[in-house]
Amino acid sequence: MTGCIAVLTTRAEASERKDILSGIGKAAFSQGLSVAVFSNIYNHWINDSLLNFENVIYNLFDPKLFDGVIIDAEAFPNIEGMKITDGAVEKIRAAKIPCVAVDGKIEGLMSLSSDDSDDLELIAEHLICGHGYKRIDVLTSDSGGSISERRLEGIMRAFSRHGITPAESRIIHSGNFWDDSGEALGKRYACGELSLPEAVICLNDYMAFGLCKALTDAGIKIPDDVAVTGYDTNEDRVLHYPYLTSMRRDRHSLGIKAVEMITGKRCPIPKKVNEIVYGMSCPCGLRDDQIRSDVSKTYATWDRTVIGPYLQFSGSLTACRTLSEYTSVLSEYFYILRPSEKLFLCIDSEWNSPKFSGEEFMRIDIDGGGFTAPQTVSGGKLVENILAGGSPAMYYFSPLYYQMRLFGYTVLKISSPESYDFSFLDWSKTAGNTLEFLRMKNDIDYLTQCRKVSELYDSLTGFYNLGEFRSITGVMEPSELEECEIFAVRLGIPEGTGFSLGENFKSEVISAVASALKSTVKNHEVLCRAKDTLFLILVKNPDEYFFDRIKAMVCCAVCSSGSAELISVKFESCRADGMESLLKADPSGQAPSDGPYYRTMLQIRSRIYSSPKRAPSKESEAKALCLSPGYFAAVYRNTFGVSYQSDCINAKITLAKYLLCTTVMSVFAVANTCGYNDEKYFARQFRQLTGCSPVQYRNAAY
Hints:
Blueprint: E1 4-9, H1 15-30, E2 34-39, H2 49-52, E3 68-71, H3 79-82, H4 86-95, E4 99-102, E5 110-112, H5 116-131, E6 136-139, H6 146-161, E7 171-172, H7 179-190, E8 199-202, H8 205-217, E9 227-229, E10 246-248, H9 251-263, E11 275-277, H10 288-305, H11 310-318, H12 323-332, E12 342-348, E13 360-367, E14 370-371, E15 375-378, H13 382-387, E16 394-402, E17 405-414, H14 423-450, H15 466-474, H16 478-482, E18 484-492, H17 497-501, H18 505-520, E19 526-531, E20 534-540, H19 546-559, E21 568-575, H20 579-584, H21 598-610, H22 618-624, H23 629-640, H24 644-662, H25 667-673, H26 679-690, H27 694-701
Parallel strand pairs: 1-2, 1-3, 2-16, 3-4, 4-5, 6-7, 6-8, 8-9
Antiparallel strand pairs: 10-11, 12-13, 12-17, 13-14, 13-15, 16-17, 18-20, 18-21, 19-20
Helix pairs in contact: 1-9, 5-6, 7-8, 11-14, 18-19, 19-24, 21-24, 22-23, 24-27
């Protein structure tokens, strides 16, 4: 295996990431080393479970395979983002290999910082000396760690030198290094909540883009009414109005220096310098040479994206009937992924099963000339197998998934020190979506060819109907019945929901619950839709957490319907020979109203279970209802028989059970998704409520 350096970063196609990766690649190649980049595709910090799931890519990283590791810490700009790499950092410490954190500090590891403090000082000097501004606001972030601190220090040095002492209220800490926080600040200026300064310094370009958009939408002229500057010029500059005055930072040299620190050898590659790029967001105006350079880079990127063929690409993949046809289409449209030399498609051998295994993969090598026959590779040897042999190259590891279903990984091999561009986002999404479509077609073929689709089965769920279920239990021996239990799930859906929520609402809820039940069973359980909203599950020798898993899966399925406050769920169980008593019981309808706050309490509880991480405090909910916290707590307890605080904890643990049973997320990631900052505290609270650890619970589910 050729020597190799690993890089942990995010969104490798972003221009600022491409610059540092280019420097790393050139320096590594000069020393005969390859580079393996582990990156997600979208923003790691967006609070969306479907996007957060892609961060399983960092679990694939194994430091023992590499000569050194570079963590692009700036790519994880806040505390929540950095937690994604915690597990990787622990593995790096255990492996005792060289590791450099670029633009961030991680205890026990080498660090390399850019001179962004001096850069921001120059930007502040430019506004003060070049344009005479004194009333200057700064958009920074409390969660940006050392990055925010360094950049703010440079600005404050310039302020101090010129006798400017801004009020604390003018140092705005609501930034998150993305455009939505800049847009939020712009709206505060527009509505008069904050008085308009002469200029605003944003600690990065993305926040400045959002601020400029909000200001121009409100009719505030830039730079006549207020000047705006960013930092860290990227290719997106030409796509925003007005052209931003910013600082082009030399990340390329940072990448080179990081490799030199890993190897202890100098790289014969010239360094560049940082420079201010002038735009229309301050009175300087554009410089022809700078704007020509930016436009040429942007057009080059758009030329490479090959947008036109994407419609044909998606349509061709959707028409595939086999995995062989699927890989053939990927090969046909491989040219979309230029400058890639090869694509390694690594699909879980159990990709067509309900759950990701990860124990064995089918590795298929794809390029413009075709594709190879699948090669079986064990999960623990996958990365090593990909990197084995050959001359130095860049390898980009990304997840291949659809929503929260992981199929495996894709690896792009590029023989030059370049990164893929943003066209890979569309390519990856299309590949994942159509692979799920192929899996669904296989399921349909299985149902229609291998099972009798007749009066024996319920057409909506595919479960047995009551008559066939009775027949199955009727032919069982008494000794078999003694080993079996029947679990019942009753849904209470009020009449009239079709009018208010659409005719398919009830069917969608039933289908969601049926899907949850399917994903819970793992052996030879028999599923039945006995009545309209009554499900039965016949289980032989269920494990001790089986019923608990059903509750968690169904509760999460109901919450995902978007109107959980309208639906009640009742769970029951009995011996197999007591089934008739379950059928005779009254259906579980919506509980009657109990007091003036009943519907409001249902809506509050629905919000808690739909998003437990964002559960508001008891005091804020009480204030919204104009109630005292004590009275609100009493009403909540009387309505549901549980305290508000306990219900918030129950909601988090319920979501944790769902994630443990349906995803390959690490325990730390599950804890973070459910709102826990401390993994050990989460594990302790999980054990208190379930009687087992999260790992034991997951093992029982598989």
